[in-house]
Amino acid sequence: MKKRKSKSSNDQKKKSYPKKKKTNEVDQNYSKTEEIRLNKFIAHAGLCSRREADTYIADGKVKVNGKVITEMGYKVRRKDDVEVDGQKITLEPFVYLLLNKPKNTITTTDDDRGRNTVLDEVENATGYRVYPVGRLDRNTTGLLILTNDGDLAHRLMHPSYKVKKTYEVQTKRTLTQDELDAYAKGVELEDGIATGYNIRPFADVKNTFLISVFEGRNRLIRRMVEFHGTEVTKLKRTEYAGLNLKDVSMGRWRYLKQNEINDLRKLVKLDTLDFKKG
Fold this sequence. Notes:
This protein is an alpha+beta fold. The protein is built from 8 helices and 17 strands.
């Protein structure tokens, strides 16, 4: 009897899924004739934040019905043809995913060196373009949100909203209690004071502790560890904005629940979404 070949996880990733409305997707309920500010339209297409959209507009990279638009405050309708930097965009339903990012995966939408990206982990799963909220460096694992809700992504990353992030940190040597306590007081880095919160060493895991921060500076946790003359050997983000990795194994993802989506929006002072519409 011929042995049946099982599908690899990579084969499964390449499978194409049709666009099908789910209970945790929400339509953007603009009528065909309702006027929407152009930067808002671009953000709600999932391309970028409104501020970044303003830059595209100012640089003459936005066309509406074939005409270059540089006017701030210009309004469009859903039925209009809008292009940004040569790419046609549309108002797709908002989609929200939580990924447990594996190691050796980069947090970009594509990579010219052919390295694995976070989008490869959710390739074709939704049928919509989604983008990572912030970055985790290549060797950092753990919780990452992906969405096409540009307003939410922008606010979650903005330092003024002080979104809480918790990390599990393994170091080359054990940090002393005094060194851990120093994080709570704040340590001086080259770009300013960095402060940690709720710092807890693991009693049963060598050289490992938990730390929370409310900012997203580049390589922040790694630089805080280097302040004490050692280095990070393993770094995992376990919590972000009240979300955790429960029931999401490494390399897997899930849709955010409706209450989780609206909790995120309330956290950054955005209106909640009505999932009964659309």
